[in-house]
Backbone:
């Protein structure tokens, strides 16, 4: 619809106490193409029409009317929030300037004089006011659309943020579960030996008893041995629990100590798989960060090495850990002989949920979490390469 058509389609309210005037105005407007015209013979019915139609775009208002005059009606319209912006065209026989001034002071936009000699003046002013009104409406619509768009965008961003937060939460949870699964596996390894010992001691006691040899000495030494084993088993649980409890704040820690902590937990499992773990310390650097998280990263990498070694049924399995400094940075390299990382996944292996392991054997979060911990939380770097029939991971700390 063109501007002219739109203007001709706008709703005009004519208010005059003379039916003759109303008819005259209406005819002039209709002759010019206006189609939507309402009329009111007094202010009260004008208010009523304004209340019922929210699309009135112009009020042509007579000044001299019984009961409520035009000035009063003008004041009323301009005081009502939803009506305020409707332009008012004063149509008045009064030519005294004072009245006109009052009308403008009250917010009227323009005026025409009665009696109308011809339609030119009326049509020009009506058109002008409606045109301004149309522009205002279009601008408002534009602003409203923009506001809605902005709001939608904001809501979408909010929703995305929330979704990501939940995803992080889920991932953390999965990683924790996987860690717990690992933890139980390690505890099982650590416990196998002491459980055997306790079993043997019980058997021994029983045999002594059957042979009538169960002396107080045997009883005491056996019980002490059993309690020692139980103490060791209980300590294992504490160690693991402690290991998987995250640090609350950064602290200074020794890299060597972190390696020792990790190995003290996984040593038994490595031994069981005949994996020789060697540690070579060319330096003994200390760094600033979260020691337990750091040790977990080493654990993730060592576990991956172990898995690769077991998968490839390596004959003489080895993991070589080296600590050194490079340009003031503390580096740990972990080199296995498990066959190496296929070229096509060397970039992808850090993606969350990327795993080449059998269903149920890997969450694919190990390296992702490790990268997050080292690079995002501690400002370090993790990378890997293949060398001598195995993978070599580097963990660098500032
Ligand atoms: N030392 C390695 N040798 C060969 N491939 C490796 C090695 N370390 C990692 N990868 C590859 O990278 C993939 C991703 O490792 P990541 O630790 O992120 O997950 P995962 O070990 O599969 O599962 P989990 O969440 O249980 O650690 C592995 O599935 C494996 O294909
Ligand atoms: Mg892993």
Residues:
């Amino acid at each position: 619809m063109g501007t002219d058509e739109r203007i001709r389609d706008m709703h005009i309210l004519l208010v005059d106490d003379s039916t003759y005037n109303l008819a005259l105005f209406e005819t002039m407007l209709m002759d010019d193409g206006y189609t939507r015209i309402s009329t009111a013979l007094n202010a009260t019915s004008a208010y009523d029409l304004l209340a019922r139609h929210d699309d009135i775009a112009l009020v042509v208002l007579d000044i001299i009317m019984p009961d409520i005059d035009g000035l009063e009606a003008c004041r009323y319209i301009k005081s009502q929030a939803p009506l305020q912006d409707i332009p008012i065209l004063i149509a008045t026989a009064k030519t005294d300037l004072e009245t006109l001034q009052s009308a403008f002071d009250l917010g009227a936009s323009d005026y025409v004089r009665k009696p109308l000699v011809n339609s030119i003046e009326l049509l020009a002013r009506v058109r002008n006011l409606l045109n301004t009104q149309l522009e205002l409406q279009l601008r408002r619509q534009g602003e409203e659309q923009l506001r809605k768009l902005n709001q939608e965008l904001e809501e979408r961003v909010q929703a995305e943020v929330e979704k990501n937060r939940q995803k992080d939460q889920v991932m953390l949870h999965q990683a924790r579960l996987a860690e717990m699964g690992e933890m139980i596996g390690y505890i099982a390894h650590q416990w196998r030996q002491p459980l055997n010992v306790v079993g043997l001691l019980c058997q021994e006691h029983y045999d002594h008893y059957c042979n009538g040899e169960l002396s107080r000495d045997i009883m005491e030494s056996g019980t002490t041995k059993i309690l020692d084993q139980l103490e060791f088993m209980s300590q294992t649980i504490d160690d693991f629990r402690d290991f998987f409890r995250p640090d609350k704040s950064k602290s200074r820690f020794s890299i060597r100590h972190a390696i020792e902590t990790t190995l003290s937990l996984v040593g038994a499992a490595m031994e069981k798989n005949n994996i020789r773990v060697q540690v070579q310390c060319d330096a003994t650097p200390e760094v600033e960060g979260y020691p337990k998280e750091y040790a977990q990263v080493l654990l993730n990498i060592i576990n991956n090495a172990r898995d690769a070694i077991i998968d490839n049924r390596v004959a003489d399995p080895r993991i070589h850990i080296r600590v050194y400094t490079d340009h003031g940075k503390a580096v740990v390299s972990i080199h296995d002989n498990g066959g190496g990382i296929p070229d096509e996944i060397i970039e992808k292996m850090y993606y969350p949920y990327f795993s080449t392991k059998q269903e149920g054997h890997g969450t694919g979060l190990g390296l992702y979490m490790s990268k997050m911990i080292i690079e995002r939380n501690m400002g370090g770097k993790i990378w890997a390469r293949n060398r001598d029939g195995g993978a070599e991971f580097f963990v660098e700390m500032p």
